[in-house]
Design a protein that fits this description.
Number of helices: 2
Oligomer: single chain
GO cellular component, one term: basement membrane
Keywords: Disulfide bond, Glycoprotein, Laminin EGF-like domain, Repeat, Signal
Helix content: under 10%
Protein name: Laminin N-terminal domain-containing protein
GO biological process, one term: axon guidance
Structural class: mainly beta
Distance between the termini: 88 Å
Shape: elongated
Largest sheet: 6 strands, antiparallel
Length: 255
């Protein structure tokens, strides 16, 4: 199991790419969670036998409209090549309404203006070629942590003969893991910067604008609450507005 403990804040993921030094597994899975206290949820399954290993049928597209869910593919489960094989997962591929982000409650939401490319050596900030449209509600593309489980090894059917010396020659090895995503700022920040988050920890935080505040610019500043907070989108920036103070003037007219 390979677990990336906390990106430091929530990110909106575009893709995950794994390169194996060994042959690719017969079956492995990617999980994510949206906060440090939330449960791990399946993000994507890779398997030569999806039903047997993960209890789901192989699907390249979710047929359930408005409900993103983990899909399973056998595309990257061949034992060949014996080294250097890739497995790539695009977080919106096959999900319903992926071309109708502004109209979809499931795939609509926060803009993420800063980019992250994370590999085994650590994060690389400001990767401008990444793009992912808005998303909200079930937060399908949002994650603070990623976990990969290597569940079943690919073999040349040597397990049928039961020779331990041969079986022990197989192994898992990952040479590179790249995670592409954008900093989650609800469209109210041009980038993420080093700072102190609301938990008092040094971490990446949004450089909030539009009179917003919070790790993800998720609320209006005090005295800028004339209207409810609203995420920015392609339809508008929706800045928080200052409260208007009503003053009553009494004019005394001398008789």
């Amino acid at each position: 199991m390979l677990e990336l403990r906390r990106f430091g804040k929530s990110f909106r993921l575009v893709y995950i790419a794994v390169k194996f030094q060994s042959s690719r597994p017969d079956s492995f899975a990617i999980y994510k969670r949206v906060s440090r206290d939330s449960p791990w949820v399946p993000f994507h399954f890779f398997s030569a036998s999806c039903r047997d290993n993960y209890g789901v049928d192989e699907k390249l597209t979710s047929l359930v409209v408005g409900s993103p869910r983990a899909l399973c593919t056998s595309t990257y489960s061949d034992i060949v090549p014996l080294s250097g094989g890739d497995a790539v997962f695009g977080t919106l591929e096959g999900q319903p309404n992926k071309h109708k982000f502004e109209e979809s409650d499931e795939l609509q939401g926060s803009h993420y203006r800063n980019s992250l490319r994370w590999n085994l050596t650590g994060p690389v900030i400001n990767f401008p070629s990444l793009f992912l449209p808005p998303f909200r509600n079930k937060e399908w593309v949002t994650a603070t942590e990623i976990k990969i489980t290597l569940d079943k090894m690919n073999t040349f059917r040597d397990e049928m003969y039961g020779k331990q010396s041969v079986l022990q020659s197989y192994f898992f090895a990952i040479s590179d893991l790249t995670i592409g995503g954008r900093c989650r700022c609800n469209g109210h920040a041009p980038e993420c910067i080093d700072g102190i988050n609301e938990a008092g920890e040094r971490a990446l935080i949004c450089d909030c604008q539009h009179n917003t505040e919070g790790d993800d610019c998720q609320r209006c500043k005090p005295f800028y609450q004339d209207a409810p907070w609203r995420r920015a989108s392609a339809l508008g920036s929706y800045p928080c507005q200052p409260k208007f103070r009503t003053t009553v003037f009494v004019l005394a007219i001398a008789e």
